[in-house]
Amino acid sequence: MFSMRATGRLAALLFFMLPVTTFAVDARPNFVVVLCDDLGYGDLACFGHPKIKTARLDRMAKEGVRFSNFYSSAPVCSPSRVGLMTGRSPNRAGVFDWIPPAGTGKRDDNRDLVHLRREEPTIASLLKKAGYATCMSGKWHCNSRFNNAAQPQPGDAGFDHWFATQNNASPSHINPKNFVRNGTPVGPLRGSSCQLVVDEAIDWLEKQQKATPDQPFFIYVAYHEPHEPVASPDALVKKYLAVSKNRNEAEYFANVHNLDAATGRLLDSLDRLGVEKNTLVVFSSDNGPETLNRYGGAGRSYGSPAPLRGMKLWTTDAGFRVSGIARWPGTIPAGKVSSEVVSALDLLPTFCSLAGVKLPKGRTFDGTNCTAALKGGSLVRDKPLIWCYYNAINERRVAMREGDWKVLARLVDGDGKALKSLQNLHPGNAANVKSAKLADVQIFKIVDDIAEKTDLATSQPDEAKRLRAKLETAYAQLVEDSWVWER
């Protein structure tokens, strides 16, 4: 006979098992997000690249939907990833630019404090709470103190299992040495980063399916490719030498080819394990392509923004209009090309809706449930997409996509002078930023003018007035809600 203490322990055990047991018989979908790093809008064959072979992603597009208007949440890495994870503008979450390693010193701009805060619900934390198994493999870049108890790590953001680096694979994509698995440094590895990242995801999934096959899962695969320092397998590089300007360009082409092959292996694993029909897979990039030779180590940055204007770090569309492909056999119509405006911010509300998870109250989410667009229908947004990147290369650092229109604006102080570029909000600059005004607004009929060549603000004054009013309202709300880092 059980003692009262044993009975109590058994009851407690059964209670904590309830979430998984309750959902074991339902048909909630699994979710896989595959995110590239600095992949250009025109870098895939199915998005028009004339030389790079991306057979598996082309096939994924034929098996699902390819989005021609898919936007990341920022034109640079860290804020883009935070936006994807939280469904909120990264400005609200307090990540305004890429996050450098903190080191041991304190910075005047408080960038050493920046991280994805515990208070921010993520896709992983919300799904985990609802009974999902969760895995992250690849580039994290959501904190300045990686694998350090001083700041939250991927496990604190809801991932049961994580295999990650703070930023880039080091010393390059080939044979990296800086991966950490669940808090323990892994040491030198052999192989290319994207293949190692997929190896980890597949291994985790196989074990998860063997142990709890009825438990739904969420996998976040974050490639380092094709971010610098670009390095690719020699066999692939040789295939591109004859069609490239030089070996550096061949290295880049091979890099994209390699991540395509890695994605194919991941999709094959879903098919082999028999979970493909209940798994929504979304493929995209964190931002647009790096500018060739923008800095000393960018000699292999041959990414293509075509036909968009700008590059990574710009608020013209090339900065954050990226490739977007989704596959969900039997649910997403095969072979569709959608012109619906979809954002990485939409993934959290969409996944939560499909999983039957209610969004937390009292928080502003900037994404929209895009299930209708995934299934081939229309997407209605209750507010426009807005970006504010204070360190943009181009002078208009505030951007908005509203229906058929793209809007750009400068930020100026009370004297009409351009607001100085910055990488973080802190007590020393927050007041100046929050008092800045929008100026020199440009509007583009982006559906007809994808390269943003013709400003219609003068020729269509009524439309310019309407869009400016929308931008001012959206920007005022965003800047008021932006997180300020105080020491």
SSE layout and pairings?
Elements lengths: L3 H20 L6 E7 L18 H9 L1 E7 L5 H10 L3 H4 L29 H7 L3 E7 L21 E5 L14 E2 L2 E2 L7 H19 L5 E6 L11 H7 L6 H26 L6 E7 L35 E7 L8 E8 L3 H9 L15 H4 L10 E4 L9 E5 L2 E8 L17 H6 L1 E9 L15 H20 L7
Parallel strand pairs: 1-7, 1-8, 2-10, 3-4, 3-7
Antiparallel strand pairs: 2-9, 4-5, 5-6, 8-9, 11-12, 12-13, 13-14
Helix pairs in contact: 2-8, 6-8, 7-8
Query: Could you list the spans in which at least 5 consecutive residues all have pLDDT below 50?
Result: 1-24
Largest sheet: 10 strands, mixed
Shape: globular
CATH superfamily of the largest domain: Alkaline Phosphatase, subunit A
Task: Compute the number of structural domains.
Answer: 2
Tell me the name of the CATH class of the largest domain. Answer: Alpha Beta
Instruction: State Rg.
Output: 22 Å
Mean pLDDT: 94
- How many beta strands in the DSSP annotation? 14
Decide which structural class fits the backbone. alpha/beta
Beta fraction of the residues?
Answer: 15-25%
Strand order of the largest sheet: 6-5-4-3-7-1-8-9-2-10
* Proportion of helical residues: 25-40%
SSE series: HEHEHHHEEEEHEHHEEEHHEEEHEH
CATH architecture assignment of the largest domain: 3-Layer(aba) Sandwich
Number of helices: 12
Enter the CATH topology name of the largest domain.
Answer: Alkaline Phosphatase, subunit A
